[in-house]
Amino acid sequence: MPDAIFAEPRLAAIYDALEPERPDLEAYLGMVAEFGAARVLDVGCGTGTLALLMAGRGVEVVGVDPALASLEVAQGKPGAERVRWIHGDAAALPPLQVDLAVMTGNVAQVFVDDADWATTLAAVGQSLAPGGRFVFETRDPAQQAWLGWNREQTYQRTDLPDVGVVESWTDLLEVQPSLVKFKGTFTFTKDGTTLTSHSTLRFRTKPELHQSLTQAGFTVDEVRDAPDRPGLEFVFVARRLS
Fold first, then answer.
1. Cα-Cα-Cα-Cα dihedral of 30, 97, 42, 236, to 10°?
2. Which residue(s) pair with 143 in the sheet?
3. In the chain, domain spans
4. Distance of CA 7 to the CA centre of its chain
5. Using CA atoms, how far apart are residues 52 and 237, in angstroms rounded to an integer?
6. How far apart are CA 58 and CA 80, in angstroms?
7. N- to C-terminal Cα separation, the chain
């Protein structure tokens, strides 16, 4: 089940406003051009920011996401008719033959169970044309990003048109080996409503990711540094073998 920040309509509606800058997307747009991809699958497309940017450049895009509220936001944006939107997870995708599959925003970390991750990798592989590439990012566990997930460092007060001021912050709840649990809190000061979103992320090491990709029939061409967060994330570039 998707986290409330993506699945609760009132939170999905303000998601883009709370995350207004997405410098990471430029790197993905660059790779679309670098690999000459004419057909792209955006796994965990959310509110559709990247999918619409790609479609605006003439790319044939399929966006899939299990959070209906986020998809509804995406479908309401200008140019949304140029993207094929699918409600569900990667395993529910129809037959596709895309040149490139992307997974941005550290979506790879939501698959906490190895079986779910393997199922997702298999589904992505089946969606790719032979030789097609799969690009995704994930945080380097050695950098312990969760140390900054507290109210003091994450508090925001955002004044949104027609919504009013929204106060938001993150609280770290639990750190286990490879698993991190945290809670997002969102207070709409106009009417006093407070909504929360609980999340669990899996922090896999680079060798673990290599192994899982190999087992799913991919070869890892390279692991890049995230240009917007250097030294903090892995950007895997894998290729379907056949």
1. -60
2. none
3. 4-140+205-240, 143-201
4. 14
5. 22
6. 13
7. 32
Residue 163 buriedness (CB in 10 A; 0-12 / 13-18 / 19+):
middle
**Cα 223 to Cα 127: distance, rounded to the nearest angstrom:** 22
Give the count of beta carbons closer than 10 Å to the beta carbon of residue 110: 20
Task: Report whether 96 contacts 41 (CB < 8 A).
Answer: yes
What phi, psi does 198 have (nearest 5°)?
-95, 135
Q: Which of 158, 167, 169, 174 is nearest to 197 (CA)?
A: 169
pLDDT along the chain (242 residues), means of 10: 91 91 89 97 97 98 97 98 96 92 96 96 96 97 97 96 97 96 97 97 98 97 92 96 80
Q: Quick one: pLDDT at residue 242?
A: 74
Looking at residue 227, its pLDDT comes to: 86
Asked if residue 5 lies in contact with residue 184, where contact means CB atoms within 8 angstroms, the answer is: yes
According to DSSP, the residues that pair with 164 across neighbouring strands are: 160
Query: Strand 83-87 to strand 60-65: parallel, antiparallel, or no bridges (unpaired)?
Result: parallel
Q: Are 232 and 106 in contact (CB under 8 A)?
A: no
CATH 3.10.320.10 fits 4-140+205-240, yes or no: no
pLDDT value of position 228: 85
